[in-house]
Amino acid sequence: MSLANQILTINDDFFIRTHQPVHRGKVRAVYWLTKEDSQRLAKEKNYDVASDALLAVMVISDRISAFDCIWKADGGLNGVPGKGAALNAIANYWFKLFKANSLTDSHILDIPHPYVWIVQKAKPVKIEAICRKYITGSMWRAYAKGARKFCGITLPEGLKKDSALSELFITPSTKGILTGIPGVPETDDVNITRKNIEDNFAAFNFSTVDDIAQYETCLKEGFSVISNALAEMEQIFVDTKFEFGYVTDTSGKEKLIYIDEVGTPDSSRIWDTAEYKVGNIVENSKEDFRQFLLNYFSDPDILLNKNRMSERKSLALNNTLPVDALMNISKTYIKIAEKIIGQPIHLSDNPKQEIIDILKTEYNLYPINLNVPV
Predict the structure, then answer these.
(1) Looking at residue 274, what is its pLDDT?
(2) Is 151 left (phi over 0), alpha (psi -120 to 50) or beta?
(3) Residue 23 pairs with which residues in a beta bridge?
(4) By C-alpha distance, which of 16, 66, 1, 8 is closest to 358?
(5) How do residues 284-332 score in pLDDT, each as one tens digit?
(6) How far apart are CA 56 and CA 109, in angstroms?
(7) 228 CB contacts (<8 Å, ≥6 apart)?
(8) What pLDDT, on a 0 to 100 scale, did the predictor assign at position 64?
(9) Mean pLDDT confidence for 25-49
(10) What stretches of 176-210 show up as alpha helix (H) in DSSP?
(11) What integer pLDDT is reported at residue 369 of this predicted model?
């Protein structure tokens, strides 16, 4: 089987029965099921959801996104081998651990295939909730330029790059472009403060102002569970992003849950503990790929400056990277995934056909007689 068949780069062309257009994200595609299929699956599979819950099939791809752009390599290599399976396996592992530690639920109901989740529709909180235990990345860049306030938090003098912070800092940013919120620029992924959220909780899709404290508790609990588990694997959980949303449970009560992935190399920085102790930073995350891009192009400001987004998109569209750049991140993702889950990551010979077959025979979501080229 060719490498091209093993990599799932196009994930928005499945003929899954839906009741609205496919949502195309940078990495995932979401197929919202019909009301009839949602109710049928909930009953057949005994999902713990409200009777009127809408369900979706979420298909991850092997595309690699960095600096809000999709990157490809020479020779038609348009994705990272094993990336999708590694990310899903890691997130699935953490969600099981969350459940074992009595944390709040996630939107995942079923895992038909390593590249696929069945999820329930949630009302998303419009915040990317970032937790930081070390000063690095954008926080360090701002600090090095003299900034001492970050998302409303005052940082002390004398901090050094990549050093541990005194506590876990919550540094939220906007998810999507939000309009009409005083003091919040109308742009995606802009840092905000807790006061911004408190003063405009409904604009950020919180149901009540009291839910802000609950979301912060979920952040800290989730970070702690993953951090403690990684520490036992000689890994440091540096920072991460969580996302949340609301669903209605079987009793009709609204509850706040985790949505999207958690604790993956795409959404987190993970450092090797032994190397860190001797002064080296060894990344087990996408950060290595980001640093590669910053060093590869002659003008890295294009990748860091949000005002140059049109140039950035052109850079990604019109350039191919060395094959090794994508193969190296494949090795990183698979290695950390196998360390976390404690077993090998299986690379499908043809994930697209496998997904079609499963959704046909086991979920009745695919036209049985449709001849679909793969």
Answers:
(1) 97
(2) left
(3) 30
(4) 16
(5) 999 999 999 999 999 999 999 989 999 999 999 999 999 999 999 999 9
(6) 10
(7) none
(8) 96
(9) 95
(10) 194-199
(11) 52
Residue 371 burial class via C-beta count within 10 angstroms: exposed 0-12, middle 13-18, buried 19 and up: exposed
Which class for 279: exposed (0-12), middle (13-18), buried (19 or more C-beta within 10 A)?
exposed
Does the pTM of the predicted model rise above 0.85?
Answer: yes
Contacts of 180 (CB under 8 A, 6+ apart): 203
Helix or strand (DSSP H, E) at 340: helix 323-341
Burial environment of residue 203 by CB neighbours within 10 A (0 to 12, 13 to 18, 19 or more):
middle
According to DSSP, residue 93 is labeled H
Closest CA to 341 of 91, 106, 170: 91
Show the tokens assigned to 317: 């569209």
What are the DSSP E strand ranges found in 185-326?
235-248, 254-259, 268-272
- Phi and psi at residue 235, to the nearest 5°: -130, 150
Residue 260's alpha-carbon distances to 148, 175, 269, in angstroms, are 31, 13, 17
Q: pLDDT tens-digit profile of 237-281?
A: 999 999 999 999 888 889 999 999 999 999 999 999 999 999 999
Distance CA 45, CA 47 (A): 6
Give dist(CA 243, CA 262) in Å, integer: 8
Element (H, E) at 296: helix 287-296
Helix (H, G, I), strand (E, B) or coil at 80: coil
Q: Looking at this protein, which amino acid is placed at residue 349? A: D
pLDDT in tens, 332-341: 999 999 999 9
Token pair recorded at residue 80: 């990272």
pLDDT tens for 149-192 read: 999 999 999 999 999 999 999 999 999 889 999 989 988 889 99
Tokens encoding 264: 């993956």
Confidence of residue 1 (pLDDT cuts 50, 70, 90): low
Q: Is beta strand 164-170 parallel, antiparallel or unpaired with respect to 268-272? A: unpaired
Residues 283 and 268: beta-carbon distance below 8 Å: no
CA-based angle 171:172:174, to the nearest 5?
150
